[in-house]
Amino acid sequence: MAAQEIEDAIKSVLEGDTHKNALDFVAYLEAKGLPLDESDKYWDVKCNGRTVCALWIDGSDSVPGPWTIWSAEEPDSWAYWSDGEENRKYINAMVDEYIKEIAWVNVNVCGNCGGCGKPGGRRKTVLGKDFDGLCNAAMQFVNPNAEALACAKKMVDIRIADILNDVERV
User: Per-residue pLDDT tens for 4-26?
Assistant: First the structure.
């Protein structure tokens, strides 16, 4: 879906800082040249055909509304590159403790949706810290404020670099 269409969705269902933050994040994705593919309030964000993250925009008061950013669910997404020792050295060099703390507050605890086939979620390492009971999408930023957006943007940057096999350029 074209960026203008996601902007129209944001304008029609979000207000105030929520509206401003969502538009800011979409503008950030556009500046990176990332296509947005929409399917009923859900947008996949891709780089070279691989998922970077996903967005949900519906304006509701219940999670995942009014809007949410998820890490990608594919096996080599945000959780994967933070799990491996080889990747961890690059990630630690790119992510300071402040961003890690924000990321850890926004891990995606399993809601027993059945998507991963494992009730109660999975054990994952996110930016060097172990968590039990996480969803396939390791991170979930629900109605992110400016701090959480800064963290999500950093995660997007790292994911793009990972996809492009150039983690040192971020």
Answer: 688 988 999 999 999 999 999 99
According to DSSP, the β-strands at 107-109 and 50-57 are unpaired
pTM: 0.83
Distances (CA, A) of 66 to 78, 94, 132, 153: 23, 30, 26, 19
What is the Cα gyration radius of the chain? 15
What pLDDT digit, counting tens, does each position of 23-81 carry? Answer: 999 999 999 999 988 888 889 999 988 889 999 998 888 777 789 998 876 555 554 44
What is each CA distance from 50 to 9, 11, 123, 167, in whole angstroms?
A: 24, 27, 24, 16
Q: Which candidate, 69, 80, 85, 131, places its Cα nearest to that of 104?
A: 131
Q: Phi/psi of residue 141, each to 5°?
A: -100, 100
119, 79, 122, 123: which is closest to 103 by C-alpha? 79
